[in-house]
Amino acid sequence: MKRRTLLALLLLPALLALPPLPGLAQTEPDPKAAQSDLPKEKLTIITRDGQRHDFQVELAKTQPQQTVGLMFRSSVPEDGGMLFDWGHERNSEMWMRNTVVSLDMVFIRADGTIRSIAERTVPQSLAVVDSNGPVLATLELAAGTTERLGIRVGDKVEGSIFGKAP
User: What is the pTM of this model?
Assistant: First the structure.
């Protein structure tokens, strides 16, 4: 038993120096600053009473862009935000690590219907904010936006990834 432990300890530095195997999840480096503005696109939310609310949202499409998201940003424009395009429907689990402003998170199905909303998330929290089911995208807006504009579950979102650009 002691020989196996000694052998494992001797081999550990060599194993740690090897590149990761393809297909295995890799840990992203911990960001230290906000990412530059990402490309933007118009997104429209249509409430049940027919009100149309237009936003210019940044598109986070790649895994590194999605990892950083709105971290370290000191504000989110009233008519702005960030849309996380997951590429296919899946459960969305977000958190607020390194995010210094409160956000509303809007979880959107592939057909553009809002599945769920998490209002006024807690800055810096490591608690998971879950979509509670499969969604194509997650939209982060300034905290209080959904309440102020009367945006609710079941409302529709128009944007290029939902098959209908506003």
Answer: 0.78
